[in-house]
Specification:
The structure is a single chain. With 212 residues, this protein is an all-alpha fold. The chain folds into two domains: 2-61, Arc Repressor Mutant, subunit A (Orthogonal Bundle); 70-210, Orthogonal Bundle (Tetracycline Repressor, domain 2). Helix content is 78%, strand content 0%. Helix 6 runs antiparallel to helix 7 (94-111). The mean pLDDT is 89.
Length: 212
């Protein structure tokens, strides 16, 4: 029995499971984009991935699970861990922390413009996606609030600016809609967008003495 357990947990098994997972994610993303989320079925994803429908359900449980996994993968690909480490390393330097956060969100939005558009537009008609979108925005707002509270303690916020106002400003300006308007609609290069956004938020959020 010991040999069977070692075989089950072998690197080859893990690679096979990850290969299956990636096939499902690629197929789901392709179909969500080309057919639309609502018209894409688990059966269609299984056919595109050349897998059985039960395998899809076993791996992700639902279409929503596939979309959530795609969004999580986007965050990993955009180096969420690196951004978190950079913000921590820049403690006491709010402008540097701001630049690290904006660089990450820019990478994240650039890697998933198609998926973000799907989640944003379909959420109005799909209750589970509406909950997913609301959850994502809540997490983003909480992350902004954590940074702003640190900046408040350090005396970096502009005079008269409350934590709530600063949090809402960072959350709104750093969101996917602003990225879409400037980069997707007006075709700004990402670096130009990032530089503009950093300058704008520095002017709105920080006391003059906090700017570098």
């Amino acid at each position: 029995m010991a040999n069977v357990k070692r075989s089950y947990h072998s690197p080859a098994r893990r690679r096979q499971a990850e290969d299956t997972r990636q096939k499902i994610l690629r197929s789901g993303r392709e179909l969500f984009v080309t057919r639309g989320y609502g018209l894409t079925t688990i059966g269609a994803i299984a056919e595109r991935a050349r897998l059985s429908a039960p395998t899809i359900y076993h791996t992700f449980e639902s279409k929503r699970g596939i979309l959530m996994a795609l969004l999580d993968q986007m965050a990993q690909d955009a180096d969420l861990a690196g951004m978190t480490a950079a913000v921590a390393a820049a403690a006491g330097d709010p402008p540097r922390q701001l630049r690290a956060r904006i660089a990450f969100t820019s990478r994240f939005y650039a890697k998933g413009t198609d998926l973000i558009a799907i989640a944003r537009t379909v959420s109005g008609a799909e209750p589970d996606l509406a909950a997913l979108w609301a959850e994502g925005e809540t997490r983003r707002h909480r992350a902004a609030a954590a940074l702003v509270r640190d900046w408040k303690r350090e005396g970096a916020l502009a005079d008269g600016l409350s934590v709530k106002e600063a949090t809402d400003t960072l959350w709104a300006f750093g969101g996917p809609d602003v990225f879409r308007l400037f980069v997707t609609e007006r075709r700004w290069p990402r670096r130009r967008y990032e530089a503009w956004l950093v300058r704008t938020l520095e002017g709105l959020l920080f006391a003059t003495s906090a700017s570098r």
